[in-house]
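W.,

You were right to be curious about this one. When I first looked at the sequence I had no strong expectations either way, so I just let the prediction run and decided to look at it fresh. Below is the sequence, 271 residues in total, followed by the output.
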Amino acid sequence: MPRFVCATCAAQFADAPAPPEHCPICTDERQYVPESGQAWTTLDELAATHRNEIREDGELTGVSTEPSLAIGQRALLVPHGERFVMWDCITYFEDDAADEIERRGGLSAIAISHPHYYTGMADWAARFDCPVLLHGDDRRWITRPDPAIELWDGETRELGAGLTLVRCGGHFAGGAVLHWADGAHGAGALLSGDIVQVIPDHTHVGFMYSYPNIIPLPEAAVQRIVEALEPFAFDAIYGAWWDRLVRRDAKEVVRRSVRRYGRALRGELAP
């Protein structure tokens, strides 16, 4: 039976003879269903049209689907002892790409910032025989349940080897980032998905309830994000897409961005 994949967000669903009526991630107000209606593809169809790209991004190695699929994010491989934690996820992978990751050490775990990037987590976990770490506050968005999924609760989850998951909330209730203590040449790095969005000029970051629908977060939710990050040292931020990097002074960039966001909500920016 085919494995159906939402064409808009790339969420996978359990094998079935026909696709679901709709994708619950895309009917949520944070995402969207195209005007043309719900569309589906399958892993077999993707294999005929897409490939993986593995390349360096800052200090890390990333893997993406090319041509761009759905939201277009890339996953990152973060050192974790002799293996890697895959941060965020993509839905499609070739055997050659998985073999190359295995050659480099393989995966000890997959950790994901929020439901828009759950995508192909079950397939990746099966290939590398590793757990998938999701915050329990977002369990309702799992579209393809799998025994590899481990839900964590609370505000932080220590992974060892200098890696810590931090719940920030905001974009989703369980929205998380990954702190990499050894990143930025020992000054610390933050892998943020789009819980903390690296914007095109790289001098600020953004915060939204919905990015495609342009729905802002309340100021209190954004303030909570910066408070959750305050205990952690970081000089760099890795966003969700290739080359979306804040390369220096990242903690001050977050603080500065939160102040600007608050001024905007209060109408204090010049018209």
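Here's what jumped out at me. The chain has one domain: 4-265. And, maybe more interesting for your project: The first strand starts at residue 4 and ends at 6.

Coffee later to discuss?

I.
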